[in-house]
ArsR family transcriptional regulator
Amino acid sequence: MQEVLKALAHPMRRDILAMLRTAPRNASEIADKFDVTKPTVSGHLNILKDADLISQVRSGTTLTYHIRLSVLEEALGGLMGMFDIGNDKDLKEK
Amino acid sequence: MQEVLKALAHPMRRDILAMLRTAPRNASEIADKFDVTKPTVSGHLNILKDADLISQVRSGTTLTYHIRLSVLEEALGGLMGMFDIGNDKDLKEK
DNA sequence: TTAATAGTTAGTCATTTGCCTAATTAGGTA
DNA sequence: TACCTAATTAGGCAAATGACTAACTATTAA
C-alpha cells in the first residue's frame, strides 16, 4: 500500500495510469502525451512498476505497458477499510 | 486531491488520521503515540491541515484535532472515479 | 556488421521531505 | 508580573524526488 500511495502522489503517474486504463501503450506513446523527456517518463514508469501498478511486455524493440487494476483496487480498498469508508453494507454498526 | 494524496503518502500521517477516526485528540496525545519529537508531529499535522483532512479547535492552551472525513471520502471517490473503480452500480456500461 | 530505432541507465543538479534541537508564541495561573 | 505548560515556528542537515543531458543496451533491418 505504501508503494502504491507514493506512486499515486504524483499527478503524471496518475495520468499515466488513467491512460493505461483505456488501453495498453508503449513508452513512446506515453511519453508523447507529456511535456517531459523520455528518461523522465521512464523513471515514472519504473516507480509504477515497483508499486506493481503496471506490467510490461516486450515485442521487438518496444515495451508495452499494462495497468494492473487489481493492485490499485486492493490498495484503495485497504485505504477505505482503514478509515471505514464506503461500507455501503447498510450501517451494521456493532 | 493532489494535496490529499501527498498527505496520505506518509504512513505516520495515515496513522494519525486513523486514530482521529476514533475520536478527536490534542497534539500531545497524538505525539505520544509515535516515536518522534513533537515538532515533527506538528509538521505532519500541518500537512494534514493544508490538505484540509483535519481541523483544529483551541481550548485554553491545547489544540484538539478532528478528522474531516468528508474530504477524505471525496478524494478517494475522485480517485475511484478516475479509474472507474468501485462502481457496484451493476455494470451499466454505455 | 553496420546502422537505425526504442527505451533504459548513469550522472548531475535544484528542490522538497523528514527529522532534529533551539527558540518562540499562546494561554492559564500564582 | 512572572512562571508554567501546550504547541508551534525557525533553522539546519541528510536523504529522497524530479527533471535534464549524455551514454548505453536491445532488437530489427539493410
Summary: The first strand of chain A starts at residue 25 and ends at 26.
